[in-house]
Amino acid sequence: MSPTRGALVTGAAVTAAAAVALTVVVWPEGSGSGSSGDTASPSGTSAEAVAPSPSRSYPMSSTPSTIPAVREHTPARGPGWQPGKDSTVVIAKGSQVLADEAELLAEELKIRYRGAEPARTGDVELALGAKDAGPTESYTLTVRDRKVKITGPDESGVFYGTRTLKQSIKADGTLPEGVVNDRPDRSQRGLNLDIARKHYSAGWIEDRIREMGDLKLNQLGLHFSDDQAFRIESKSHPEVVSDEALTQDEVRRIVALANSRHIEVVPEIDSPGHLGAVLAAHPDLQLRNTAGVASKGSIDISEPGAAKLIDELLDEYTELFPGRFWHLGADEYQALTVQNPAASYPQLQRAAEEKHGAGASIEDLATGWLNDRAAVVVPKGRTAKAWNDGLFRDTKVKADENIEIEYWTGKEIGARPPQEYLAAGYKMLNLNDEFLYYVLGEPNEFVYPTGERIYEQWTPLVLRGTEPVAERYSKQILGGRFAVWGDLPNAQTTQQVADGIRMPLVATSQKLWDPRKPALSWAQFQELAERTGSAG
């Protein structure tokens, strides 16, 4: 197939970059990292005095080749930067917290890390700026005088600057001259992984974390409890754990790697539904109707022992996962899917009225359950999250207004339009099942999402279906996650999952970093993903 015009243009840019790289290599003596750049020429006069400034011989620089694309680049004339045999990575005085980022970058570029030392020609310097120097996760990357300086108000911003450098070198062999000012549009950007219904090894998850870090994604959701399995070792309740499960040491390793890439792990123990694996070991807490028939995956929230069991698990795993967020689930409680919940489950109706007064419903009892579980994790410094269909219309009991609503569908009972939650003041995250749900086996009319469709049609405002909500709600939509669900776990191998989600996740990263219409066509974006290494 002949290349597109965009591909030809890109190829020309690569050729130009190669020429620039050659110029840097043959630069007069004094261009090495061991020199200040002012070394005298053989005649005894400076090289600069013999000829005009070299910057005048260079074309205006192009924007660095990265995914997600940088939001702002001020071009300049100059050779740009590429790692040389004497190049090193250093950190500015007072920026010792950036040592991990500096060591990682040095390892990736195959150059040395020198520590907190003055930058020399050919070096990369990382520096923390003032906290109010820019928004969280922002950075400034300056390429000038054959040096690179990356600054940001926090460690994550500086780390993202190193990702821009790494990708540009991978794609073009050089980092263009000029100044990048970059920042994400949304504060939560990530991947949601169902490790309950399908087992993934710690190594497989760690590979995804490395890919996520390079894409400037910052959140990994782990749904590790469901009807089919409970996939993380438990010290408090070992009886609920499935045969194939991550050990707590493996989880600590996953969390540590995620932290090094500035990714927060968001754990989820879904309740009061999706608890089949837990209830298999605690059948006395299984919800049953008046005929004694079990409600799939549902715990009987009228039983005092139900809250005790779930809270003990929450207490244990909030110690294992030290991040800022905790997902409480709350979706698809099967007691509320029958025609007359109060008649089928009179024990729930009695408990609702006893706890919340005359006229209270089972929806009130379920909402109270959600609030009570939030009251367990919030004092531990966590922000609670819940699926949108776990909140109900016209209840006496209102869900805690500080719970972040993760909107995934409009198909379920209780799933109101996103505008209702937004109008009530809730903050939301976008996991729109129309675009962002990769459901193994494609059951229930799900179709594997494509990166092209996400890239061309989806933005964080498109919370349900294909229509965006009003722009006035934009600040309440904190971001989104691409989600992998294991409904039919054997439909794909773990390698097929890794391959299948790669370009959709790459496209998601672009639209969460900058939801504006992309400058590149999808074909050009795919070609760029290949050159930056984002496509695998």
Distance between the termini: 21 Å
Q: Main sheet?
A: 8 strands, parallel, barrel
The number of helical runs is 15
**What is the mean pLDDT?**
91
Q: Structural class of the helices, strands and pairings?
A: alpha/beta
Report on this structure:
This protein has 536 residues and is an alpha/beta fold. Helix content is 33%, strand content 18%. It has helices spanning 5-25, 47-50, 99-109, 155-172, 202-214, 248-260, 276-280, 304-320, 341-344, 346-356, 362-377, 418-423, 451-457, 494-513, 522-532, and strands at residues 72-75, 88-91, 112-115, 124-128, 139-144, 147-152, 178-182, 188-194, 219-225, 264-271, 286-288, 294-299, 325-329, 383-387, 404-407, 428-430, 437-439, 477-485. An eight-stranded parallel β-barrel has the order 8-9-10-13-14-15-16-18, surrounded by four helices. It is elongated and about 85 Å long.
Summarize the structure.
The protein has 536 residues and is of the alpha/beta class. It contains 15 helices and 18 strands.
What is the secondary structure topology, with strand pairs?
Layout: H1 5-25, H2 47-50, E1 72-75, E2 88-91, H3 99-109, E3 112-115, E4 124-128, E5 139-144, E6 147-152, H4 155-172, E7 178-182, E8 188-194, H5 202-214, E9 219-225, H6 248-260, E10 264-271, H7 276-280, E11 286-288, E12 294-299, H8 304-320, E13 325-329, H9 341-344, H10 346-356, H11 362-377, E14 383-387, E15 404-407, H12 418-423, E16 428-430, E17 437-439, H13 451-457, E18 477-485, H14 494-513, H15 522-532
Parallel strand pairs: 2-3, 2-4, 4-6, 8-9, 8-18, 9-10, 10-13, 13-14, 14-15, 15-16, 16-18, 17-18
Antiparallel strand pairs: 1-7, 5-6, 5-7, 11-12
